[in-house]
Amino acid sequence: MGTAERLSMERLTLDKVPKQSLSQIDIETAFMVSRLIVAAERIQVFRLLHGEQMKADAIGRGLKIHKNHLEPFLNVLVALGLLRKANGRYWNSRLATKYFIKERSIYWTRQYSKECARAYEALTVLEEALRSGKGCRAIKDPQAPSYVESMKRDPNQARDFTQMLLHYHRDDAKALADYLDLSDREAVLDVGGGSGVMSIALAKRHRHLRACILDIGPVCEIAAENIHQAGLSGRVTTQAGDIHNSLPKGYDVIMFCDVGSLPKTMLQNAFRALPANGLVVLVDRYLSRDATQPLDRIAAHFISSSFGLATWPDMVDELTACGFTSVKARNVYRDLWFITAIKPGPGKIGVPRSATATLGR
C-alpha cells in the first residue's frame, strides 16, 4: 500500500498528501490543482469509477468530457494519487475511495463542491475586497440571495444543503451527546437546527428528552423526514420560524449549533425564553483565543462568510454580559467548542459531564 493509501485524514490539505505530489508544488499550481479536484468532485469522477476500472473514452462518454481535455484531466488525477492507471484503464485509488466516497455523501458532491467553485470565482476580486472592506461575493454578485433566501426559493438547494450538513455533523452530534449530561432536563429548543442531526443524537442518548427544531419552513420539512427515519417523531418535532425573533418558551435547554457568531440580541432572546436554571448551549468552530485558527473559517471571511469571526472567549464574555452564569467552554472534539451557561435561579441545575471551572484551551 502506498503513502497516499495509508493516509488517515479529515480533508485533503497540502500538508497531508504524498511528497511527490501536492506538497511540493508552488502556490499557483496548487490553486489550479485544487480547482481540478473540485471539478472532479462536481462531475462525479470518483462515483463513476467506484468499484470500476474504465478506459478513458468510456469515462468521457459517461461524464461528457470533451476529448481535448479528457486524458490530461484523468492523468492529473493520477499524478495526484487520486486515480490509478494501467493498461489504458483508470480506477480510484484507496485515498479517493476513502475521501470522496466513504466520507462524503452525494449531497456533499452537489452542494459543497458547488460552493467551492463559487468561492474560486469570488476570489478573483479579492484585492478589491481588501481595499473596499466588502466581501468578495458582494462585489462579484451583489444581487445574489443569501443562503436562507436561496433555500426558500429552491427546494432542491434546501435539500442538498440540509442533507449535506446531516452527514457532515454526525460525528459532531455524537460528541455533543456524549459530552452533555441532560438527565435532569426535559426539552431542548434547537435554534437553527437544520437537518436535526444534533437533536436526533441527543434524543437517542436521553430517552426521556423532547426536542424541537426551529428553522425556516423548507428546512423543517426535510428535518421532519430525518426525524421520522430515525424513529423519533414522537419526541422530536419541528417549528418553522425566524431564529432572530423572540424564541418560544417551554424549553429548559436552548441550543445554537453551527449558526456562527451569535449577536447579543439572540443570546438575550434565549435568556428571556429560558426558565430559571435553564441551560444555553453553543456549539461551533469559534476562533482560537488569538484568532488564528481554524484556518478555513478565517479564510471564508473574505468570500462573505455568515459565520463571523468571534473567538470562544468572545462568546463567553457575551453570555456573561447577558446575565448567564456558570459559563463553561471546552474544546472537546476536533476544533469544535462546546460552551454552556445557566440562567440564574433557585433549584437544582444540570451541567455538562466533565465540565470544570477551568475554561478550555
SSE arrangement:
Blueprint: H1 3-6, H2 27-42, H3 45-48, E1 54-55, H4 56-63, H5 67-79, E2 83-86, E3 89-92, H6 94-102, H7 106-122, H8 126-132, H9 136-140, H10 147-153, H11 155-168, H12 170-179, E4 187-191, H13 197-205, E5 210-215, H14 217-229, E6 236-240, E7 253-257, H15 264-273, E8 279-284, H16 295-300, H17 312-321, E9 325-333, E10 336-342
Parallel strand pairs: 4-5, 4-7, 5-6, 7-8
Antiparallel strand pairs: 1-3, 2-3, 8-10, 9-10
Helix pairs in contact: 2-7, 4-5, 7-11, 10-11, 11-14, 12-13
Q: So what's the CATH class of the largest domain?
A: Alpha Beta
Radius of gyration of CA atoms, rounded to a whole number? 23 Å
The strands making up the biggest β-sheet line up spatially as 6-5-4-7-8-10-9
Number of discrete helical segments: 17
Helix content: 40-55%
Element-level helix/strand string: HHHEHHEEHHHHHHHEHEHEEHEHHEE
CATH architecture of the largest domain: 3-Layer(aba) Sandwich
For the report, how would you describe the main beta sheet? Answer: 7 strands, mixed
Strand coverage percent: 5-15%
Mean pLDDT: 88
Kindly describe this structure.
The chain has helices at residues 3-6, 27-42, 45-48, 56-63, 67-79, 94-102, 106-122, 126-132, 136-140, 147-153, 155-168, 170-179, 197-205, 217-229, 264-273, 295-300, 312-321, and strands spanning 54-55, 83-86, 89-92, 187-191, 210-215, 236-240, 253-257, 279-284, 325-333, 336-342. Strand 7, helix 15 (264-273) and strand 8 (279-284) form a beta-alpha-beta unit. The protein has 17 helices and 10 strands. Helix 2 runs antiparallel to helix 7 and helix 11 packs across helix 14 (217-229). It folds into 3 domains: 3-102, Arc Repressor Mutant, subunit A (Orthogonal Bundle); 106-160, no CATH class; 164-342, Vaccinia Virus protein VP39 (Rossmann fold, 3-Layer(aba) Sandwich). The protein has a 7-stranded mixed β-sheet with strand order 6-5-4-7-8-10-9, with helices on both faces. It has a 3-stranded antiparallel β-sheet with strand order 1-3-2. It is globular. The two termini are 37 Å apart. The protein has 361 residues and is of the alpha/beta class.
